[in-house]
Specification:
The chain is mainly α. The protein has five helices and three strands. Helix 1 crosses helix 4 and helix 2 packs across helix 3. The termini are far apart.
């Protein structure tokens, strides 16, 4: 049975598992992009690989593309035949079937759902701002009121009877203890 002809699949193309039927989702990101490319025109494998890079598949294993095309053909979503119209060896030419066109529509509907979820996520997600200590400049020294520059003349850094704020200790790994503790 082809992927296009049943609707009880999970993300891996298998049964939904809960007894309820739902629209099938593509098994990988590659499937809907290959189907979309083939909807526009029939192509050879190497041309499809080039077009996948144009869609953003930067590191794509050629073998994955050919395996996916073979599976799509086995599922009745694409057909292929040998192109002998040019000089050189015959090359396989892939084309989308009517079942493949229907499955592409299912993929597009599923991807629209993902797009809405992602839009909602990024509407709510706010990039965290850096910690305040990383963006605030170090505190300026107190105004000197005595000749030694620390404000109180005792050479110990306290100005006007107030202790200077202690420096924060560097962060420790979770579960580690400060030196000298058991």
């Amino acid at each position: 049975m082809s992927n296009a002809s049943h609707s009880n699949g999970n993300a891996n193309g298998g049964p939904a598992g809960n007894g309820q039927r739902r629209a099938e989702q593509p098994r990988s990101w590659l499937q809907p992009f290959l189907l979309l490319a083939l909807e526009q025109w029939q192509s050879h494998g190497y041309e499809l690989i080039r077009r996948m890079s144009g869609f953003g598949f930067e590191t794509l294993d050629r073998g994955s593309v050919y395996r996916t095309l073979r599976q799509l053909e086995k599922d009745g979503l694409v057909t292929s035949g040998w192109d002998t119209s040019k000089d050189g060896p015959a090359r396989r030419l892939y084309a989308l079937t009517d079942a493949g066109r229907l499955y592409l529509e299912t993929c597009a509907a599923s991807l629209r759902g993902y797009q809405m979820m992602l839009n909602q996520f990024f509407t709510l997600y706010q990039v965290p701002s850096p910690p305040a200590s990383a963006t605030e400049p170090e505190a300026a020294p107190a105004e000197p009121s005595e000749p030694n520059g620390n404000g109180n003349g005792n050479g110990h850094g306290a100005a006007n009877g107030h202790e200077a704020a202690p420096r924060r200790a560097p962060a420790r790994a979770k579960g580690s203890r400060p030196r000298g503790t058991a």
